[in-house]
Amino acid sequence: MPETADPTARKFETNFRNLEQLAADLEREAISIDELIPRAQAGAEAARNCLEVLNRSDEALVEIDRIYAKIVADNGKAEASSS
């Protein structure tokens, strides 16, 4: 992934990498029973953080889409009135 200065994006990327590592460790059975609960709790927190970032991003994209649709609609009205 490209390097970014956005702390929210870095937080998402860090949390996502942590989830990937946890999944890989679980698949390889590389987590001891003593590590399981704290790692699972950390994974749940990382997943929650990722979901929050994705939800905020989705909301922002919906707003951008709404603004773009208004610009297009207003442009169409302006072209129709100038004809």
Keywords:
single chain; 83 residues; 0% strand; mainly alpha; 2 helices
Q: In words, what does this structure look like?
A:
This protein has 83 residues and is mainly α. It has one domain (7-81). 84% of the residues lie in helices and 0% in strands. It is built from two helices and no strands. The chain has helices at residues 7-27, 33-81.
Shape: rod-shaped
Radius of gyration: 21 Å
In what range is the share of β-strand residues?
under 5%
> Fraction of residues in helices?
over 70%
Low-confidence stretches: none
What class do helices, strands and sheet pairing give?
mainly alpha
Largest sheet: none
Provide the residue-averaged pLDDT: 88
Domains, number: 1
Q: How far is it from the N-terminal to the C-terminal residue, by CA?
A: 48 Å
Number of strands: 0
SS field, number of helical segments? 2
The helix/strand order is: HH
